[in-house]
């Protein structure tokens, strides 16, 4: 199943990676920097993924707060209501809010075979909260 939350337009990707606009990404396409299946044109809009952008352009050149996806989801989905878990979740939420207040981005990463993969990159608290709400909704439907 495809996670559409990991799909970006070139304009979105350019903003998140700190590029001037989508033209740098289009030039990378012209130079065959992307692999098959990493980009697609849908109508007039070009699409790519976080992992493709990371492979071609490296980590975003902007200041970010990194959060491990597994740890974060364990905190927000656990039924453990202990003081320790509540404190960890509150601390993480404060770090996220502070990052946005400091004009940083928030990056959700996953580690596979000791390799970091960017799953999501949020530019504001509204994007981040929407993502959490989607995850909570999908978790309840399971």
UniProtKB/TrEMBL annotation:
Q: Where is the Helix-turn-helix domain?
A: 1-60
Which organism is the protein's source?
Culicoidibacter larvae
* Taxonomy, superkingdom: Bacteria
Know the name of this protein? Helix-turn-helix domain-containing protein
């Amino acid at each position: 199943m495809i996670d559409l939350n990991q799909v970006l337009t070139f304009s979105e990707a350019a903003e998140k990676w700190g590029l001037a606009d989508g033209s740098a990404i289009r030039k990378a396409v012209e130079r065959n920097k992307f692999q098959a299946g990493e980009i697609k044109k849908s109508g007039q809009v070009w699409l790519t993924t976080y992992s493709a952008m990371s492979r071609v352009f490296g980590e975003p050149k902007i200041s970010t707060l990194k959060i491990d996806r597994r740890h974060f989801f364990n905190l927000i989905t656990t039924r453990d209501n202990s003081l320790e878990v509540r404190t960890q979740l509150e601390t993480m939420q404060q770090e996220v809010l502070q990052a946005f207040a400091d004009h940083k981005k928030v990056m959700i990463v996953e580690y596979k075979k000791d390799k970091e993969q960017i799953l999501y990159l949020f530019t504001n608290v509204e994007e981040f909260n929407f993502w959490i709400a989607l995850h909570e909704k999908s978790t309840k439907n399971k």
